[in-house]
Design goal:
By secondary structure, this protein is of the alpha/beta class. It is about 30% helix and about 25% strand. The chain has a domain at about 15-80 and about 165-180 and about 190-260: 3-Layer(aba) Sandwich (Rossmann fold). Mean pLDDT is about 85; it is low at about 1-10, about 10-20 and about 255-260.
């Protein structure tokens, strides 16, 4: 597969227009059926950067993302998103969200799915086509979603999240099931978006993807192990292999790190 062409990104946002932190949590506790899934975590996600949310399955990544979107109740602590409490109605058009379970209409074509979400955001048909191109589905625009492979289906959902040109893009395992070439293309797209002011929070359980992030939030069993850059993780985990470094950090009992800008 050839590399996917990267379409035009949103107009560059002046640094002065960016909030100091796109997401800020202080003592955040979230419970599911009385069990603490997020255990008093505090962190700050800088605006206009790519922040990776990493940890093994069951660490609380998806719960944190749902809480940022305002669909998960907070038991205690605070969570601010783009300068407002998480769940504030005015945030809806400013956040793009891709869930693990693709939010796609099976009986619509690829392009019609993306056009629908484009219309919700007041975007043009051209914007919809550019979003389809961005995720590597050129040539499949007229195919119904139900007839797509699993990886293609996920990419339609990603295109729907991209088309609104949100200030904050929350992506839950966006590269699962994708071939290595497309994964590289998507990460290049993520970088271009961040360079033009979009804040991205990208979850993954694949530690190699951490190297593409500016900052990392490391979760384990609902607790924040630390927030640091990939190079800091390598140094503190005493390994150039990020997966081994993460394991080393856990085993060493290294205290939680302060948020990085």
């Amino acid at each position: 597969m050839s590399h996917v062409a990267v379409p035009p990104v949103p107009p560059h946002r002046d640094l002065a227009d960016r909030p100091a932190a796109a997401i800020e949590a202080d003592g955040l506790v979230v419970k599911l059926r009385r069990m603490e899934v997020l255990r008093g975590i505090s962190f700050s996600v800088p605006a206009g950067r790519v922040t990776g949310l990493l940890g093994p399955s069951g660490s609380g990544k998806s719960t944190l993302m749902r809480t940022i979107m305002g669909v998960q109740r907070i038991a205690s602590g605070t969570l601010g998103v783009l300068g407002r409490p998480a769940g504030t109605t005015s945030l809806r058009p400013e956040i793009g969200y891709m869930t693990q379970n693709a939010a796609v209409y099976n009986d619509l074509t690829v392009l019609d799915n993306v056009r629908y979400f484009a219309a919700l955001h007041g975007k043009s048909r051209t914007a919809a086509r550019e979003a389809v191109d961005a995720v590597g589905l050129s040539g499949l625009e007229k195919r119904k979603a139900v007839d797509l492979s699993g990886g293609q289906f996920s990419r339609v959902s990603l295109a729907c999240a991209l088309v609104g040109e949100p200030r904050l893009l929350v992506l839950d395992e966006p590269t699962v099931g994708l071939d290595p070439v497309l994964r590289v293309d998507l990460w290049e797209r993520f970088r271009a978006l961040a360079d033009h002011g979009t804040t991205l929070l990208v979850s993954s359980h694949v530690m190699e993807e951490a190297s593409r992030c500016d900052s990392l939030l490391l979760l384990r069993e609902g607790a924040l192990v630390g927030q640091m850059t990939p190079d800091e993780l390598r140094e503190r985990g005493r390994s150039q292999d990020l997966e081994q470094a993460f394991l080393g950090l856990i085993q060493s009992g290294t205290p939680r790190e302060e948020s990085v800008a």
